[in-house]
Design a protein that fits this description.
This protein is of the alpha/beta class. It contains two helices and four strands, in the order ββαβαβ. Strands 1-2-3-4 form a four-stranded mixed sheet, covered by helices on one side.
Length: 77
């Protein structure tokens, strides 16, 4: 996001916990890095470290492994 850009995130705030949710039809390995960057920007702007979550019917195994390693929750529906 080096050039000024609009960044979209879905946000849930529950009991003072901020959760950034990415809802996608298919999560790929590259999507994990993008969500991490969005989380870091949110933390820098808001001063609150958010919990990161993917919701998708299909998550690549590589993406699931990377997400787990980075503490991102991944839910398949």
């Amino acid at each position: 996001f080096g050039y000024p850009a609009t960044i979209e995130v879905d946000l849930i705030i529950k009991d003072k916990e901020h959760i950034l949710v990415e809802i996608k039809s298919h999560v790929r390995k590259s999507d994990v890095g993008v969500l991490m960057r969005k989380g870091k920007i949110y933390e820098r702007v808001r001063g609150i470290k958010p919990k990161l979550v993917f919701v998708s019917p299909y998550i690549d195994e590589d993406a699931r492994g990377d997400a787990e390693m980075l503490g991102i929750m991944a839910y398949s529906i």
